[in-house]
Amino acid sequence: MPQSLPVAAADALIEIDHVSFGYDARRTILKDVTLNFPRGKVTAILGGSGCGKTTLLRLIGGVHEPSSGQVRFDGKPVNTSNRAELYKFRRRLGMLFQFGALFTDLSVFDNVAFPLREHTNLTEDLIRDIVLMKLDAVGLRGAAQLRISEVSGGMARRVALARAIVLDPELIMYDEPFAGLDLVSLGVAAKLIRTLNDITGATSLIVSHDVPQCMAICDWVVLFATQGRIVAQGTPAELMASTDPEVRQFVRGEPDGPINFHYPAKTVAEDYGVGV
After folding, report:
1. CB within 8 A of 108, min separation 6: which ones?
2. Per the structure, how many domains does the chain have?
3. For 75, what's the count of Cα atoms within 13 Å in the CB-facing half-sphere?
4. Which domain holds residue 141?
5. Are 136 and 221 members of one domain?
6. How confident is the prediction along the chain (276 residues), in pLDDT tens digits per residue?
7. CATH number, domain at 88?
8. Element of type H or E holding 118
């Protein structure tokens, strides 16, 4: 397919260098994956369930160490063995977990304030100003004192987004940010991701199954298959115009194509002993 050249290392904030990883010896999730993510851009990581998208975010965040290869952030390897260094590194990251992962026993304000209290020595007056500013950015300054049980699902996702950006991270990672949202909340979330990236100059990675929303707001798209095989990468326009059967099937949601409906199995005749 026609596509842009892969992102050069000099332009990349994150470099995935021949990375392999599996949660156990029997199943490899990522196999010899090499990929760069452009600095200051919004990149969508698309692909079917189980292809390693969320695992890749965990490797970037230092939750897991690659079985082989190296993950580099801003030119330096992500060091999972040095706890102090890893803790310092994670201050530079923001993470929006699937379904928000908010503290249900804390208020909206205290959820957003939590990273500031955990990672800084700021006074409560400064924390108050920063939290209200971040909540205002996502349209929820007036909801600061509400309990999490008192806000809608779409509002909760915006609270989680405010928490993810409260430390002004260089990298914001979104794990299925559009899952479970109604159409209005989905549109609001997508617009916020794009706007916040442009205003802050951060680098954003979005793991998602929502092709239309990602194509609308992203600068770069990477399409994964099993074991982290990169099917294609390029601009949204390039992937949408692709004639490659695998790319076309995924981005257009076509039921027939290289992605099989049936998991590999014996024939019916072999299973039932017919004609054997």
Report:
1. 135, 140, 143, 144, 145, 146, 147, 148, 151, 159
2. 2
3. 2
4. 101-168
5. no
6. 444 446 666 688 899 999 999 887 778 888 899 999 989 999 999 987 778 888 999 999 988 899 999 999 998 999 888 888 888 888 888 888 765 678 888 999 999 999 899 888 999 999 999 999 999 988 899 999 999 889 888 888 889 889 988 888 999 999 888 887 778 888 888 888 899 898 888 999 999 888 888 999 999 999 988 777 888 899 999 998 888 888 888 777 665 555 554 455 666 666 666 555
7. 3.40.50.300
8. helix 108-119
Same domain, 62 and 107: no
Residue 158 sits in the same domain as residue 178: no
Residues 239 and 266 placed together within one structural domain of the fold = yes
Assess whether 174 and 154 both reside in one domain: no
State the Rg of the chain over Cα: 21
- Token duo for residue 131: 């939290």
Taking the alpha carbons at both ends of the chain, their separation in whole angstroms is: 44
**The whole model's pTM is what?**
0.81
CA-nearest of 252, 266, 260 to 225 is: 260
In a domain, 194, yes or no: no
Task: Check whether residue 20 and residue 60 sit in a common domain.
Answer: yes
**What tokens appear for 193 in the block?**
């991701």
The helix/strand/coil state of 218 is coil
- Contacts of residue 149, defined as CB under 8 A and 6 or more positions apart, other chains included, come to 104
Let me know: does 122 contact 116? Beta carbons within 8 Å. yes
3 and 84 housed in the same domain = yes
- Tokens encoding 75: 């030119």
Q: Could you tell me the CA-to-CA distances from 270 to 235, 261, 273 in Å, in that order?
A: 46, 20, 5
Q: How far apart are CA 227 and CA 132, in angstroms?
A: 42
